[in-house]
Amino acid sequence: MQKLTWQMQLLISMVLGSVAISTLWPLFYVLVTSSRTLNDYLNNLYGIPREFTLSNFKILWDNYSLGLAARNTIEVVGISMICCLSLSSLAAFGLAKYPYRGSKYVNWAFIAVMLLPSTVLIIPIYLVLSKLQLVGHLPGLMIVYIATNIPFSVFFLRAAFKAVPDSILEAARIDGAGFFRAFRSIAMPSVLASFTTLAVLQFLGMWNELLYAYLILPDQSTRLLTPALANIGGRYTSNPPLVAAALVITATPTLVLLAFSSKYLVRGVTSGIGSS
Amino acid sequence: MTKTLERAAGIQPGTGARSKRRKNSLTRQRERIGMLASLPALIFVMALMFFPIGFATWLSFEKTNGVYYHFIGIKNYTSIFSSPLVHQVFRTNLKFLIAIPIVITLGSLTSVLLYQEIYGWRFYRLVFFLPSVLSASVTGIIFRTAFTYDGPVNSALKLFGFQPINFLVHANSAIFVISLALVWAGFGYAMLILLSGLTAIDTDIFLAAQVDGAGWWRQFQYIVIPSIRNQLVFVTTINIMYTFTSLFGFIFVMTAGGPLFSTTTVDYLVFQKAFSSQDMGEGSALAILVFGIIALLTLTQAKYLRTDAQD
User: Fold this and answer.
1) A259-268, pLDDT tens digit by residue?
2) Between the CA of residue B126 and those of A198, A263, B122, B138, B199, what are the distances in Å?
3) A9 pLDDT band (50/70/90 cuts)?
4) What is the number of domains present in chain A?
5) ipTM of the complex
6) I want to staple B56 with a disulfide (CB 3.0 to 4.6 A). Which of A104, A124, A163, A241 is the partner?
7) Would the CB atoms of B53 and A121 count as touching at under 8 Å?
8) CATH code for the domain in which residue B99 is found
9) Residues whose CB falls within 8 Å of the CB of residue B257, separated by 6 or more in sequence, listed in order
10) Residues of chain B numbered 280-309 and touching chain A (CB < 8 Å)
């Protein structure tokens, strides 16, 4: 495309720069606020902080059991991801390389519910889980996360497995490798990049989820981070440093992940649609 | 999609022409393996996605509080279609569509600039995408704090001699603030999708256009936009769907649907009917209605996507 003149470049850089500041400044402000005392904050809202403190984090940890919420979240996200990724890779590999009568329809079934919004599912899922006495228990939320993440994962991994050459798999089969051997030693290593991308996307989706987490785990003892944050944010509006600390706890893992995996994320985000 | 599947099936040894007679035992064994491998995932999806859709459809014809069920025909549907609250809620949803043209415009302009590798483009790509990895509750609380009566935005307004505005207690200004949060959180995603379309353009076409004397703006208008048509359609539909199904997190932490239902959206109303009130039949009817809208949008998108560029 035609190069822009340097005057244009300068103008655009200034515009983009201010958009970048509007993105970064709120996050920076939250980070700084989270380490201020309430008094220091109220004395000088936008100035340079005078004291540095971690007491907000300590209060959240001790009095609002955010540590417990963090542990619950890690447990739910971890187990759900392991289950969902293993089930999805098995299914995707089967559908890609071991087609059977009707596998086409199974594949369509996954694609059909890929974009199904949780709005449609919350009432019936809530009723089913309460019938099974799973409301208020971590496994209840786990099975929901596993199931709702499977369709896209299968769709995504199936495309990756299809790109693995049949000749390699055939050679392995002749050498006596069975399904699991071929899956573990050949198929998985060749789709590792896609697999990582998917794992990152799944982590973000589950970590940030609010609706199911709020609905299925309403009790304090089993609450996850996002509902706990929403609760603290709604109740302590007069104590911004405390809310800021809760924001930092919830947002840090996702931002750190972005810093380390932006390459994979960029791939993952743009791969959903048929463009090449 | 079908073509690919058939092609894939054709590659497999043992299928194709021979399978018409009798499948050898090896092929049958492979089929069994494929079936067993995909079964666990399928069971999960059947039990927790397909069954609930059916269950919700059935519920939408019942009056229920979750314990007692009583068939009432299409009464839930007639009552939501005639309810002023539901009308108001859908109008609110339509107001949130205002965020979409802004997201698309910002997304396409920034993606073209990144494509041109403007100075610092890697930095911008990361920074603009950054809000997309934040939870809606995080973004929502940040914006609510920024726009409270004694928050930073009003301080800035006062600094320039304007009257402070109580943003979150009036319906339209609250919708404005939430839309702003949507743009902030969403345009980076649009930018990346559009950028992926741009990188697929054959660069010779720009040289040809330059030979013909087309300037930057004309190239943007006549080459870039038509070339990323698919991505534009995709981003638009995904954002419309989002407006009807995923505002819950923002509404929940920013206004809780108030004041007086004036910022309640369809998904938030379904949530309220499921949880706060005991009206699950009507909630399900609403959910089925949303399901219909989403299905319609998906089919429309499929129609407008140029298929030759696919797969």
Assistant:
1) 888 878 777 7
2) 19, 10, 6, 19, 17
3) confident
4) 1
5) 0.86
6) A124
7) yes
8) 1.10.3720.10
9) B251, B263, B264, B265, B268, B269, B272
10) 280, 283-284, 287-288, 290-291, 294, 298, 305, 309
